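Table S2 (text version). Query chain:
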Amino acid sequence: MLDAPTETRKILAVDDNSFTLRIVQHTLEQAGYQVTTAVSGKDALNNINRHGIPHLAVVDLHMPVMSGFEFCRQVREFSDLPIIMLTAVNNEETIIEGLEQYAEDYIIKPFNPSELVARVNRVLRRMGDYAYTLDATTHIDERLLINFPNREAIINGKSVSLTPTEAKLLFILVRNAGRIVTTDFLLNRIWPLQDAQEDRLHVHIHRLRRKIEENPNEPTYIIAERGTGYRFNAEVA
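Corresponding structure-token output:
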């Protein structure tokens, strides 16, 4: 088995097959991860609403109640959760759709447990460490709380709704709090299939600042790094 991660990461495994779930859970727990399970996309969303956003999800494609792709679509409306598809579907069009629109990786069943661990490790290394523990409600400071699953910012006790794009943008910035997130990275993660320009990103940053900043003209949370990108100010916490 490959080396365990340096810190405990939370992984959500989603599959309607109980045998597969047990193998995935045992494999990843042996590698040092904290694993919770769900038997459908709907069950997985309920888990996120209760316990917060995990560091990564391993998701089957064909499930009752809500398919893997539909789960991915809904979770991407409020986050940038890294996803690995783990499925028996070995269709070229489906694989391409999964990789282009939803997933960081795509694994065909039956799978090699050591390969699963290696792919999980690789994706998490690429995503980097999370600056905040993304609980159901993320506490930024005494003024600002964020509930990503509900797409709302709570400012001085008052709820402010976020659009899917605003929620995903804020999620990426908060996840990387204290680090510069480049403009290119934000454009690629928020609009992966579109040729989006910087002006489009600037519009959403402006709208997000108007919602969460005390003074949008002198922001303290979302700081522009000229010519590079944006940084969520970790010092406010």
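Notes on Table S2: Confidence is low (pLDDT under 50) at residues 1-6. Residues 113-127 form the longest helix (15 residues).
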